[in-house]
Amino acid sequence: AQTVTQSQPEMSVQEAETVTLSCTYDTSESDYYLFWYKQPPSRQMILVIRQEAYKQQNATENRFSVNFQKAAKSFSLKISDSQLGDAAMYFCAYRLIQGAQKLVFGQGTRLTINP
Amino acid sequence: DTEVTQTPKHLVMGMTNKKSLKCEQHMGHRAMYWYKQKAKKPPELMFVYSYEKLSINESVPSRFSPECPNSSLLNLHLHALQPEDSALYLCASSHVGLAGAGSGELFFGEGSRLTVL
User: Fold this and answer.
1) For residues A64 and A48, is the Cβ–Cβ distance under 8 A?
2) Which of A30, A96, B94, B109 has the fewest beta carbons closer than 10 A?
3) Best to test chain A binding among B96, B108, B113 (most A CBs inside 10 Å)
């Protein structure tokens, strides 16, 4: 079974600083997606960034980037120039590529931005 | 249109009531999902529909009954619920593609907050 582990229940960062959220996963599959989702208090789950396992290049979306280490099964999220609107629960998630496969979530990291 | 719309946003029901949660998407997705989320916890998968057929049931109690009337709609029928069933219920949709096809992401609705008295 696939599992996703986020070892940091809570993180905080000063506004405009950089923060890195950790995620590791366990799978015996070779074709899969990894995601970071954000869930603000307003509760809608929003995709932050996506990585396909077959791509060696790390994904980047504006201030958000990942460090994908496939052999180590590690998928960390770096947020640069943190903004107050980045405050949320962040979930790392895994999904097989083929078919209608479920999204497996980590336990989440609550990120606080200090002004 | 990249939205998944869920109704109602809030629902309070007694243990003997029958109610339904509704979910709609118009992105042409052929996979739809129900997740249950307790406070400060990750979403837990309940059901997956693929091409309007139930493909995954995560051993959910029969008091929860899913229905997929067509490719755009997903319902969750509720009957004889328990107070511990109070939670946020999230609907999501995605493409069902070949390996490497599509974005792979799930699109989530805002959820229906259910309180069982």
Assistant:
1) yes
2) A30
3) B108
What would the pLDDT profile of B58-84 be if each residue is shown by its tens digit? 999 999 999 999 999 999 999 999 999
Q: How many CB pairs below 8 Å do chains A and B form together? A: 69
**8 Å CB contact between B114 and B9:** no
Q: Does B66 touch chain A (CB under 8 A)?
A: no
Q: Per this entry, what is the length of chain A?
A: 115
CA A61 – CA A4 distance, rounded (Å): 22
B110–A42 C-beta distance less than 8 A: yes
Q: Are the beta carbons of A113 and A13 closer than 8 angstroms?
A: yes
Give the SS3 label for residue A86: helix
> Could you please report the per-residue DSSP string of A64-78?
EEEEEETTTTEEEEE
CA dist B103 → A5, A85, A99, B96, B100 (Å): 23, 25, 12, 10, 8
pLDDT reported for residue A101: 78
- CB nearest to B110's CB, from A44, A54, A97: A44
Q: What is the pLDDT of residues A33-90, one digit of tens each?
A: 999 999 998 778 999 999 999 998 999 999 999 999 999 999 999 999 999 999 999 9
β-strand A109-114 against A10-14: which pairing, if any? Answer: parallel
